[in-house]
Amino acid sequence: MYKDKRGITTSPKIVEMAHKRKKRNIRLSILFFILFISIIAGLSYLSNYNKIVIKNVVVNGTHIIDNNEVDRRIKEDLAGKYIYLFAKNNSFIYPKTFLEKDLKITFPRIETLEIKLDGLNTLIVNIGERTGSYMYCGADLPEKNEDVGENCYFINSDGYIFDIAPYFSGNIYFKFYIPLDANAEILGQNVMDKENFHQIISFMDGLIELGLDPVSVTMANEESYAFHLKARSDGTEPKVLFKKENELSTIFNNLASAMKKQEFKDEIMTKLDKLLYIDLRFSNKVLYKFQ
Question: Which of 79, 210, 257, 289 would you call most buried, defined as having the most Cβ atoms within 10 angstroms of its Cβ?
Fold first, then answer.
C-alpha cells in the first residue's frame, strides 16, 4: 500500500487498473479519431462521385437575360468545395439558397425563380423576368426633346428599378423624373414608396380616361409634382400640377368633376394646343391657364 500524489492510500493493483483504463481510453480516442477522419475522407471522396454531381444546367423562361450568363454564374457558384472537402456541385448538398439569392442580385430583371434537380446530374432553373411597365430617366426633365429617353431604366409595376433601358424615342413608356438617393446605385432602388407609386399610376390612368395624354411625371421641388401631357405643336408640354401632400384621389375627383361639365371639358380639349397648365394644388379648386 502507498499514497498517491493526493495523499490517498491506494494499492498497486488499483494503480495498474487505472493505468490500463487510461491506455484503453487513449487507444479508443485514437481509434475514433481515425474513424472520424476516414468517414470525412470517404464522404469527401463520395461528394465528387461522378453519378451524383451536377454536370448540366438548363435555364428556361428568359427573353432578355442571357442564358449563357446565367449558366456561367451558376457554374461559378458551384465550383470549389465546402471547407476544402465537399464538392459544392454535389446534387445532395449544392447551395440552393445561395444560388437563388446570388442570381437575383446579379440579374435584377429576375422576378420569379425556381431551382430544382432533374435526376442527379441536371439542374433546372426556371426564370420569370420582370416586365418594364415604366421608365426612370433621371432627376430632371431634359431641356432638349431629343435627349428624352436617354439614360433611362426600366421600372416594374411596384416602382422598382431593375434594368437599364435601351434608347426609346417618343412616348412608348411613361417616364419618371424624380431625384433618388445619390449615394446608392440607381439599379435596385424604388422611385418612391410603393403606396405613393401606385397612387401616381392610378392618377395617370385617370388622366388617360379623361382624354388627356400624360407622358411623364416630374418633381419640380421637394413639395410639388407635375404630370406632363403630350407636347404641343411648339414642342412644349402642358402640365397638371399638384403637391406631394395632396390626397391624390381627392384632387383627381375634383378634376373629374370639372371635366363632367361640358363647357369646361370643351374648353380644355379644344384648346389643348394652347394649354399651359391645370393647377390642382389648391383645395377643391381647378385652375387652368392658356397661352
Answer: 210
With beta carbons less than 8 A apart as the criterion, state whether 79 and 57 touch.
Answer: no
Calpha distance 106→127 (Å, rounded):
13
Q: What is the pLDDT of residue 145?
A: 66
Same domain, 249 and 267: yes
Does one domain contain both 125 and 150? no
Least confident of 85-89, 102-106, 235-239: 235-239
Question: How far apart, in Å, are the Cα atoms of 75 and each of 4, 45, 90, 98, 133?
Answer: 64, 20, 12, 13, 32
CATH number at residue 75: 3.10.20.310
Q: Which three cell numbers stand for residue 252?
A: 383627381
Q: In sequence order, which residues have a C-beta less than 8 Å from that of residue 9 and are 6 or more positions away?
A: 1, 2, 3
Please give the Cα distance from 260 to 253 (Å, whole number).
Answer: 10
Distance CA 239, CA 228 (A): 5
pLDDT digits (tens, 9 = 90+) for 5-64: 555 555 666 667 767 788 888 888 888 888 888 777 766 777 888 999 999 999 999 988
Residue 194: C-alpha distances to residues 24, 29, 148, 216, 240 (Å): 69, 61, 25, 18, 22
**Could you give the number of structural domains in the chain?**
3
